[in-house]
Amino acid sequence: MVSAFHAICAFIARRTLIDWRVAFRHLLRHFKLTNGTLLPGVSYPETLAENLSSKRTNHKLAEQGRRNRINNALKEIETLIPTSFVQIKHAKEAAICNAKGGDKEKEKEKEKAGNQPISKASTVEMAIDYIKALQQELEETKGKLAAAEERLGEGKGLGKRDDNTTNPENGKTANPVDAESAATSHEIDNSA
């Protein structure tokens, strides 16, 4: 059992070492091709070095474009977070720091940090908090709207029952709107 374990460990060590050597040789060859320091007596096609160089250049440009897109998106997110929200978050963090027994030096560092631009990670964290706050506000508003619509619906139902009143003298149901229009038309007839 012990010998099998040692054999497996030796195999893994050899395999890792072989993989490392192959990777190193490949990297060295790539470096020599791109820098023009080729081994004497070994010839490589000229297009190979050009292709490697153009691939590297294209990769650099693509990576720079990706970083620019990320940075622009983060700047846009930072502008969308209201300054009042940022100030409230900083105030909460300062209160937590003071509650934990923060000393004057930490407070001064926080003040200096407040004047500096927000880090990318902080921007994303604040955006997450802001989105959560907006979602909570939306749910509360939806609840208030549903309650208001329910009250309005109940009010309409009561209003319909009150529209028709019963005259105690003759027991007939009269609509106050009809009574108003009848009174108005009667006044018009008398003035003519």
Automatic annotation (TrEMBL):
- Stretches of Basic and acidic residues bias are at 101-113, 145-164
Q: Among its keywords, does the record have DNA-binding?
A: yes
- Spell out the protein name for this chain: BHLH domain-containing protein
Q: Which residues form the BHLH domain?
A: 54-134
Q: Which Gene3D superfamilies match?
A: Helix-loop-helix DNA-binding domain (4.10.280.10)
KW Zinc (keyword) present: no
Extract the ranges annotated as region (Disordered): 99-120, 145-192
- What's one Pfam family the UniProt record gives for this protein? HLH
Q: Which UniProt keywords apply?
A: DNA-binding
**GO MF terms, alphabetically ordered:** DNA-binding transcription factor activity, RNA polymerase II-specific; protein dimerization activity; RNA polymerase II transcription regulatory region sequence-specific DNA binding
Coiled coil ranges (UniProt) are none
